[in-house]
Amino acid sequence: MKKSNIFKYTTIIILCALQLIPLYITLMVSLKPMTDSSSYWKPPAMPFFENFLTALDAGDLLRAYGNTFIITLSATFLVIILSIMAAYPLARYPSQLNKAVRTFFISIMMIPALSLLVPIYVLLLRMGGISRFQGIVPVHVTFHLPLAIFMFSKFIRTIPIDLDEAALIDGCSVYSIFYKIILPLLKPVTISVIILTAIPVWNDFQY
Predict the structure, then answer these.
(1) How much is the pLDDT for 70?
(2) Alpha-carbon distances of 136 from 86, 105, 148, rounded to whole Å
(3) Whose CA, among 71, 76, 114, 131, lies 20 to 30 Å from 173?
(4) How many whole angstroms separate alpha carbon 207 and alpha carbon 197?
(5) Of 205, 83, 99, which Cα lies nearest the Cα of 147?
(6) For the residues of 90-118, what is the DSSP string, one character each?
(7) How far apart are CA 84 and CA 82, in angstroms?
(8) What does the pLDDT look like over 70-79, one tens digit per residue?
(9) What is the pTM of this model?
């Protein structure tokens, strides 16, 4: 084995070990009772699984995971549907208005989401949306729509417009072109948008 490969693999192993150390310590501590004051590095003599049951019961983790799943699924679905419907006319019908709309979406992407935390909280408080699905889901949809619309519109613009014109000659309406021709071609970018939307929504803590 070459020296360069040895150095590369050694570095990778060290980095992986450093990343796994917090996980190892967390696991060891979780398997010990509160009365166990031994070192964090030392495995327990007898695994104590009561901590996990207490966390599930007292922390109501199953309900929390269920709520997070509902929020993530709902927000991702709405982002996909709304962004595709908005991106198609923006990409296929160039005009000064559409150009202004695209510029508006890009400018929204530059606003830090955390800077709007207080006004959004006040707005949701007045609307009765605190700790409710109808409050948090629209917030996530709003923040993820600009990027999704931008990605879909850019992808649709790479699809030759000759396909639309050929379909029009064959008697297809605008809606038929969208659903039968454009929509099936959007699978790659749709997967990307799903990943870029679902993961941040699932991991979100600030909202």
Answers:
(1) 95
(2) 22, 21, 18
(3) 76
(4) 15
(5) 83
(6) HHHS--HHHHHHHHHHHHHHTS-GGGGHH
(7) 6
(8) 999 999 999 9
(9) 0.76
